[in-house]
Specification:
This protein is mainly α. Helix content is 80%, strand content 1%. The chain contains 18 helices and 2 strands. The chain has a two-stranded antiparallel sheet with strand order 1-2.
């Protein structure tokens, strides 16, 4: 039941991004949204999720991971309904931002609960199962979403209502989750750090998105500069405050640094390419929303079959080679997606690329996630999960904001299938090379040790700071 609740919650958070991507063309037509507005529909969710992930992890460690997790699920369901009834594009962007805040309370608890409840020898397999099964909702969701865009009574609006039955199932399963927290946490959460992180990321993303799409006007450059300054202030605050949102001591572990560096590179590649893929499939190849949503379904099947096995393999031989081979293979799959054009065939052009891409992700995702968590002291698994998730989300944010303009996709190209297709080919090549670079980074920065070695390193770091181990807390009904 613990695994079921965390898997479904992970699927909810992923659904918040993936199902919207499939509906973007119809949202653009219905609400009169241009390319920049479509970017903000995606990035508003990712931005608020990234900005408040650290606070969500800290609140869970401090006040109870199960409690904060459940609150996040309830708020996610409520904001999904709000998105479904949004009257215009501005309201939809605002509700998407609120949905991201709810996900920020839910996402870090998902992995932290697994890390806290499962014994060390089972954690990698549990994380692998979480990775594989969690992707099922994210992949099936776009298929159902595409069907609802075509046949639903309210088109794209109905897609947001897919979250409601999943949220109800999570709440039922969550009744069996034992409460855990960091018993060493004291004082109030680092609200100053939360404000600096949220304002810094918001200003930076606004400047990058507006600048990339509008020729880097002075206002965009000023927003970027303010964002960088605020994020620098966030790091200074984290170094000085007594109970930081992001303890910089986490980065004393070389394994933690390496895992998060690889996370940033790989998820930047994925975020940029997967934002553009549904647009290419529908606007250029002429696929229906249902077929576009189903295009990545083989990725889920492969992850379901092999992610847990990849987690167990990394437990035995160490994460270095799975984290090297997986991103390189996934990068090759992204490059092959560039073959999709106006006369593309689902079987001949899309399926081979998706299979190669899915095989790479199946090898890489579970070891990457398990390594980042195993390198953290036991009492900081919540914040470590939040940091790793945050790095992945920020990488995706940057890619969605910058990649289209870097490869020549602007508003004019968005209106021209031929120009859009040319830009998409350049985008998949760049994303594929970037993803493969993440694999090479793993080969250089990770040693051939097991995940047990990372756990031992983390335990030594925890002992050095004289903090107690995680203590489960039971609440009487």
């Amino acid at each position: 039941m613990v695994l079921l609740a965390t898997v479904l919650a992970s699927g909810l958070a992923q659904l918040g991004g993936s199902v919207v991507n499939v509906a973007l063309p119809d949202i653009g037509v219905d609400l009169g949204a241009d390319l920049t507005a479509l970017q903000w529909i995606v990035n508003a969710y990712m931005l608020s999720l990234s900005a408040f992930l650290l606070l969500g992890g800290s609140l869970g460690d401090r006040y109870g991971r199960r409690r904060v997790f459940v609150i996040g699920v309830i708020l996610f369901a409520m904001t999904s309904v709000a998105c479904a009834v949004a009257p215009d594009v501005s309201a939809l962007i605002a509700f998407r931002a609120a949905q991201g805040v709810a996900a920020a309370l839910m996402v870090p608890g998902s992995l932290a609960i697994i890390e806290a409840v499962f014994v060390p020898t089972d954690r990698s397999a549990a994380v692998g199962t979480w990775s594989g099964l969690g992707g099922v909702a994210a992949a099936v969701g776009p298929v159902l979403g595409g069907f609802l865009v075509q046949a639903g009574p309210d088109g794209w609006r109905t897609t947001f209502l897919l979250n409601l039955p999943l949220a109800a199932a999570v709440l039922l399963a969550a009744r069996r989750i034992p409460e855990t927290r960091d018993e060493d946490a004291r004082g109030l959460p680092d609200l100053t750090g939360a404000v600096l992180a949220a304002a810094g990321l918001g200003s930076l993303m606004f400047g990058l998105t507006q600048g990339a799409g509008g020729g880097w006007a002075p206002g965009a450059l000023i927003a970027v500069a303010i964002g960088i300054a605020l994020l620098a202030g966030f790091l200074i605050n984290e170094a000085r405050v007594r109970y930081p949102l992001m303890p910089l001591s986490l980065f004393a572990s070389g394994v933690f640094r390496a895992a998060n560096a690889v996370t940033f590179v790989v998820y930047a590649a994925l975020g940029g390419a997967l934002f553009l893929l549904p647009l290419q499939l529908q606007l250029v190849a002429g696929f229906s929303p249902v077929i576009s949503g189903a295009a990545l379904l083989p990725v889920t099947v492969l992850m379901l079959l092999f992610s847990a096995r990849a987690g167990r393999l990394a437990q035995r031989i160490g994460p270095r080679w799975p984290m090297t081979i997986g991103p390189v293979l996934a990068g090759l799959g992204l490059i092959l997606l560039g073959r999709i054009g106006g006369e593309a065939s689902l079987v001949a052009d899309v399926l081979p690329a998706v299979l190669v891409f899915g095989a790479g992700l199946s090898i890489a995702v579970a070891p990457l996630t398990a390594t980042a968590l195993a390198a953290a002291p036991p009492q900081q698994v919540g914040v470590a999960s939040a940091v790793n998730n945050d790095i992945a989300r920020v990488a995706g944010l940057l890619a969605v904001a910058l990649l289209p303009s870097l490869v020549g996709i602007d508003q004019a190209a968005y209106a021209s299938p031929e120009a859009f297709s040319e830009g998409f080919g350049r985008a998949t090549l760049a994303a594929g090379l970037l993803c493969a670079a993440g694999g090479l980074l793993s080969a250089v920065t990770l040693r051939d040790h097991s995940l047990a070695g990372a756990c031992e390193e983390a335990a030594q770091a925890g002992a050095a700071t004289h903090t107690p181990d995680l203590i489960p807390v039971r609440h009487d009904r």
